[in-house]
């Protein structure tokens, strides 16, 4: 089932969910073993958290991405735990800064997203919470590939300006409700997302943010991304607790 929606940016301050003033009960930086490497991550868990969202960052980005940190903070205000992890080690980031190869190694990135997602149910901080994935740019492809092999371990996926074409071989295997968010003025990525929708059999929705470009830097654009992601995860992780 597919749907395409053109939405109007609305600042989050005008329509926050109940409990919007909830602050994080736990907020810490951790090191998470994944295979033969250890990845740095920032974890925040609000009081009475109803779900956990793992972020898969885009090409050349990491857990300090100001856009993803803004979205994460709004998810926390809505009662969702967040895990922002670097998908590359410090040494790998140095190599990637020179070659640009690792940021497009979707197999590697998906393996790490999946391994992190597998750890969360047993984690002493976020364990027991339903898990969703939020991917940006190439990180969205990694999130979709990871989700495709974890139909029970991942409950929902949100893509911001994603490159689902890089996950083309996995799209038909994704079973989780998936939200694709793309800027109206990002025509190449918009076409790629429309094509990806046709390859998916899971419930998928495309939200087009008017006047927004790839990085959603326009006034109100990132607020709209955060609101859409918040509502999607509340619907699919927390049983529809979003407000109008």
Concise description?
This protein is α/β, with parallel strands linked by helices and 244 residues long. The protein has helices at 66-77, 90-99, 106-119, 138-148, 187-199, 221-237, and strands at 2-6, 24-34, 37-46, 52-56, 81-85, 131-136, 156-160, 178-183, 204-209.
3D architecture notes:
The protein has a nine-stranded mixed sheet with strand order 1-9-8-7-6-4-5-3-2, sandwiched between helices. It is built from six helices and nine strands; from the N terminus they run ββββαβααβαββαβα. The longest helix has 17 residues, at 221-237. The radius of gyration is 16 Å and the shape is globular. The chain starts with a strand and ends in a 7-residue tail after the last helix. By secondary structure, the protein is α/β, with parallel strands linked by helices. It has a single domain, classed as 3-Layer(aba) Sandwich (Rossmann fold). Helix 3 packs across helix 4. Strand 4 (52-56), helix 1 and strand 5 (81-85) form a beta-alpha-beta unit. This is Dienelactone hydrolase family protein. Pfam families: DLH.
Q: What descriptors fit this protein?
A:
244 residues, alpha/beta, Rossmann fold, 6 helices, AB_hydrolase_fold, FrsA_esterase
């Amino acid at each position: 089932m597919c749907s395409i929606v053109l939405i109007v940016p609305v600042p989050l301050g005008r329509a926050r969910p109940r409990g919007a003033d909830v602050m994080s009960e736990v907020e810490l930086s951790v090191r998470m073993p994944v295979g033969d490497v250890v990845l740095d991550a920032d974890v925040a868990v609000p009081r009475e958290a109803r779900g956990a969202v793992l972020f898969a960052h885009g090409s050349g980005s990491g857990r300090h991405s100001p856009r993803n940190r803004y979205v994460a903070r709004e998810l926390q205000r809505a009662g969702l735990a967040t895990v922002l992890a670097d998908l590359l080690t410090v040494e790998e980031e140095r190599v990637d800064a020179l070659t640009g190869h690792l940021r497009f190694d979707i197999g590697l990135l998906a393996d790490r997203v999946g391994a992190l997602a597998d750890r969360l149910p047993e984690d002493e901080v976020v364990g027991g919470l339903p898990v969703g994935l939020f991917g940006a740019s190439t990180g969205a492809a990694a999130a979709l590939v990871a989700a495709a092999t974890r139909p029970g371990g991942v409950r929902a996926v949100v893509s911001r300006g994603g490159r689902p074409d890089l996950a083309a071989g996995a799209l038909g295997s994704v079973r989780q409700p998936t939200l694709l968010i793309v800027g109206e003025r990002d025509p190449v990525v918009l076409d790629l997302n429309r094509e990806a929708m046709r390859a998916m059999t899971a419930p998928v929705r495309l939200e087009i943010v008017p006047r927004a470009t790839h990085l959603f830097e326009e006034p109100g654009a990132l607020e709209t991304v955060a609101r859409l992601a918040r509502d999607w995860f509340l619907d699919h992780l927390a049983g529809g607790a979003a407000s109008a």
